[in-house]
Specification:
With 343 residues, the chain is of the alpha/beta class. Helix content is 38%, strand content 18%. It has 11 helices and 16 strands. The strands form 4 sheets. It has a 7-stranded mixed sheet with strand order 6-5-4-7-10-15-16, sandwiched between helices. It has a 4-stranded mixed sheet with strand order 11-8-9-14, covered by helices on one side. It has a 3-stranded antiparallel sheet with strand order 1-2-3, covered by helices on one side. α6 links the parallel β4 and β5.
């Protein structure tokens, strides 16, 4: 295997830094339309995150870093306010807080005269770090796959969720280039349909053979299609290696264990929260029930119906075959191995 992943071309950039503004690809419109929002203040970046115009744990961190750079243009006194706004925009992905705290540390180490330019450079460096991490994870994760594998993936952890290439989709794309991945089954991922709207679009753009399945087809495919692996991303990993990801991931892990299929989690080290002892300490975002009761603004349930909308769930580390980070592969997936690799 080559030491470096091929130079993959992403279909579109999810964020674009323009010095005085951050252009954000509005992922709510994909795949039908490619359009960008222009954010000129940290509050606008926070709203883009909250409304899911941009999403994906690593990308949220990158956007937050640029949000802090925008706040610095208004002066040092705006940074703490911007930090609070950005951190409150979504509670589960730890990359968000990681990026904000890193930018605050950069600000404390800089004098006021250079603050604006210093934080802009720091945000760009944070973005490049994520891109390098994705390339490293693609190589490491692909090494775990058997030649000719059919794989299942869930939600979207591709270029649209990161600085580029992706985490779980980066592994899949690299694996396909090596002949290790011959077919991808993308779960639609209700209720926001990231799998059908985003993941399938990315895989088709990359010329990776992909087929859309409803979320409740996964067990049948594991039973009948000789699935080689389930590959997902993560928004937060606890100190004991419990994994938090899009709601429905836990169920896939249970199914994979029953069918003897490897369950791989791909996430950068910025997704690890060593302050959370286990998955029970991870805050689970609950979004508006309308996102379950409606699709694209059209009701699909009786008027007056109630709905739960937990955006994430936690997969116990015992169900995870391996966690792939840019620092190495954590296998077995437990707290001791996690700390050893991250150290």
């Amino acid at each position: 295997m080559s030491k470096r992943p091929p130079a993959f071309q992403d279909p579109v950039a999810p964020i674009l830094w323009r010095g005085k503004a951050l252009k954000v690809l509005d992922q709510r419109l994909l795949p039908r339309r490619v359009a960008y929002l222009e954010c000129r203040a940290a509050a606008e970046v926070a709203e883009a995150i909250r409304s899911m115009a941009l999403r994906g744990a690593p990308l949220i961190g990158c956007a937050a870093a640029f949000g802090m750079a925008l706040a610095a243009r208004a002066g040092r006194e705006e940074l703490e306010k911007a930090a609070r706004l950005l951190k409150a925009s979504r509670p589960t992905a730890v990359n968000l807080a990681h990026a904000v705290e890193k930018m605050l540390a950069q600000a404390r180490a800089c004098d006021d005269g250079n603050l604006k330019d210093h934080l802009a450079r720091a945000a760009q460096a944070y973005y490049q770090e994520d891109l390098r991490a994705n390339r490293a994870m693609a190589r490491l994760g692909a090494s775990l796959l058997k030649k000719g594998s059919r794989v299942i993936t869930y939600c979207n952890a591709g270029a649209l969720a990161t600085a580029g290439l992706g985490t779980s989709l980066g592994v899949i794309r690299y694996g396909h280039a090596l002949g290790k991945v011959t077919q991808v089954y993308a779960c639609e991922t209700r209720p926001y349909l990231q799998g059908s709207r985003l993941t399938l679009w990315e895989l088709m753009q990359a010329k990776v053979p992909a087929t859309l399945i409803t979320d409740n087809m996964a067990a049948h495919l594991m039973k009948t299609k000789e699935i080689g692996a389930v590959i997902v991303g993560s928004d937060r990993i606890a100190a004991n290696a419990d994994v938090c990801n899009k709601i429905g991931t836990y169920g896939l892990a249970i199914l994979a264990r029953h069918h003897g299929i490897p369950f791989y989690v791909v996430a950068p080290s910025t997704s690890v929260d060593l302050l959370a002892p286990d998955g029970g300490a991870i805050p689970i975002e609950e979004r508006a029930p309308e996102e379950v009761l409606e699709i694209f603004g059209r009701p699909i349930a009786p008027k007056g119906a109630r709905a739960h909308h937990f955006a994430f769930d936690v997969t116990p580390h015992e169900l995870v075959t391996a966690i792939v980070t840019e620092k190495g592969v954590i296998r077995p997936a437990n707290g001791r191995a996690l700390r050893r690799v991250l150290a």
